[in-house]
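Per-record layout

source: Eubacterium segne
name: Asl1-like glycosyl hydrolase catalytic domain-containing protein
length: 511
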Amino acid sequence: MEKIKKILAMVLSVALLFSGMIFDNTVTKADETNTWSGEAIISPEQNKLIGAGYIDIKWNNTLENVKQYKVYIDGTLKKTMSPSGDIMKFEFYTTNVKGYTEQIVAELKDNTVVKSDVRNFYVTKKGICVNRRDMGAAVDPASMNIGWYYDWDYKSLKDWNYKNKKFYDLEFVPMIWGDDSVDISKRCEYANRKGYKYMLSYNEPDLKGESNKQPDTMRYRWNEMIDSKGSLRLGSPATETFQINSDKWWTPFWNGLNQTQKNNMTFIAVHAYQHYYDNADTALEYLHTIDEIYAKYKKPIWITEFAVADSGNVFNPKNAKHNAQVQEFMKIVLKGLNERSYVERYSWFDFNPEDSKTGASGIYYYDTGKLTTLGQIYANIGNPAGYNAKKYNVLYTTSKNTSMASCVAAVPTTVYSVTAKKKAFSYSIKSVKRAAGYQVQYSLNKKFSTKKKYKTKTKNISATSATVKNGTIKKLTKKKTYYVRVRAYKVINGKKYYCKWSKTNKVKIKK
């Protein structure tokens, strides 16, 4: 009997030991999955504000026996992926300024499902350009709710161990500004090693004081960039004005590229300042040119430098009218850029607010980093809902309609002259860039009433490459006074859009 008791005791001990091992193993696995759930997602970080475009969703591949991962954005399945390597990556594209949720779901080989914690991140198009000399010395990019920056260099401020460490955690976009002692391949290799996603290319190659390259030379450089780019997405060279208006540099450069070279241009980098300001229509015209660039090249757009400034026109920060003009321009243009899905990013150029000629376009003081009123407006615009943005008590909204049609309708048409002839009048019209045609409207009524007695008619005429469009309207009633106005129209993506009517001209027909 005593022997049986000893045997039973031994069996019980072994059973308890074995069950303990199972329990310990279960606890270990539970701890492992709980740890993974909380630490799975590497980027974007919780509540991070990041630049629009291509976004890397990264997570740890440390769970054992994973059959597949599922990537969810805002609760919607975006990708199913097999495990590979230590870190998994899914590329997500968006230009919507909003908050997003991200979650990774791991399906194990035993059909167990393990979910990561849900994380929030926020997307903005808004960036900033700074140099190491003075522009980046004191400013805090977080004060303007910035999602990315560049510094006209292939190395970031952190790479340079720059004194202002407030840029260190902000997404950096490198640039190959021009020819350098470090060749293109090494600069691209460096950017790839650092994990940068984009590469901006030659800055103002059409200017002697800037990167200064002839179009044919730039094509060779572009080929070098393509050969060396690795995983980088390349931005176009940034001419000193809108590419679509750069007939002497951009047009021959682009036309000389083959299709493969064009395909390797991920986005168009627009570098264009507004040199004058009349009224709100000026801002809408700026947006219209952006629309035309996209309509022609069908590539996403970054506006890497823009502001209201010109060597001939003064925008003095101590002049209330100048400040109001620049502020209105910013409000309207930023609204339009944020609305356009093909605009990925933009970056305002901060002119020194101390400068009496351009300072009205300054958004912060170089020496202190303090925001101007314009800087506070910049900070308030383009922030995704739900993001804990820095807010300022300045008016930053506009009621202006910034749709494509409204922007085309802001483009003026100018009539040089209307001259009376025998039962006719002749006209001379200033050509409108990229107009598909014109409408000449004439009437016996100055309000162009459509009532039959006023004989209001509209004649469509085709556009030509000439800078002046001349013509004649015949078979009119002699000795009658006619009112005449003209407008251009454009065809964008197969749809006709009308420009603004010209001022009304009055002409009395001869016998």
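summary: The chain has nine helices and 25 strands. The domain at 124-407 is CATH 3.20.20.80 (TIM Barrel).
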